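Annex B. Sample input.
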Amino acid sequence: MEEIIKTMDEHKTALARIMDIRLNQETFSIVMEPKPLLRKPIIVILWLLLGTALLLSIGASFTKFKGSEILTFDLEMLLIEIPSAIFIRRLTYKKTINLAEAKFEFTGQLRKKWVFTLADYEGAETVRTIKDFPEEFRANFRTEKGTKSFKLADLNMGYARDIEPNHEAVCALWDAIIRQMQTIQQQEA
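Annex B, continued. Sample output.
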């Protein structure tokens, strides 16, 4: 855990630009979430907006309007529901890494819960743009249906000059996490 804390201190500003990281030394876990830009009030407002739009679209089917008016209204409500659901998924995406049990957990609202072990881990990759700028840092895990990739960090947060330091910080943190898990598993074996 000391190596992870040391890495986080070295890359403190870059990691703060990208994500919110919380260490829990009691449970020996790390929680990574999107930047907390008024996240909770926005999520509540989005849920209220989504629920209201759904209720209005269901209620429209019980009114005495023509079929085309109901369809138009439902399509308008759909234009509210879809972006609300997308933003809820993005803002509640949480990655929990349990170092003691060597487990990775990817959760969020309106999202399937995925849990993997270190044995399922296939490696990390950086998705790059056409001009070879790092854009996303992803981790790959083996599933029954093949390989599943999960986005750990969006590296384009902030100015263009910050992209490379963001990439270095996330790579260093992820390498420290994987090394720590491997060390724990070797000590147990």
